[in-house]
């Protein structure tokens, strides 16, 4: 089986119309029309599996660059060793963050609370909005 990429077909085209378009040139085994997950509308490209290489070549010769609707069809043979794209993952997967324990030396600083023991540091005024 040979996998074909067909791009540039109209967004209103469905699987049946695509199979009817290519079936005079080669026998279609499977079809995968790529759609938007939320709206379920076609994204304008599909993948077809054709039973033999001769049929795939006939489809490419007949339909490559052909105007269909308001778009031009682009057809390529997908290499057999091509893997589907994988989603990027964060290195190491998801883990809860780890925090290092910090030892404090001396008295804790006073940040805007009550003035220090000796009264040398005045309190900061609040911002006015």
Describe the model.
This protein is α+β, with helices and mostly antiparallel strands. It has a domain at 2-77: RRM (RNA recognition motif) domain (Alpha-Beta Plaits). 15% of the residues lie in helices and 24% in strands. The protein has helices at 15-22, 53-63, and strands at residues 2-7, 28-35, 42-50, 67-68, 71-72, 74-77. The chain has a 4-stranded antiparallel beta sheet with strand order 2-3-1-6. Strands 4-5 form a two-stranded antiparallel sheet. Strand 2 (28-35) and strand 3 form a beta hairpin. The radius of gyration is 32 Å and the shape is elongated. The relative contact order is 0.19. The model has no long low-confidence stretch (mean pLDDT 81).
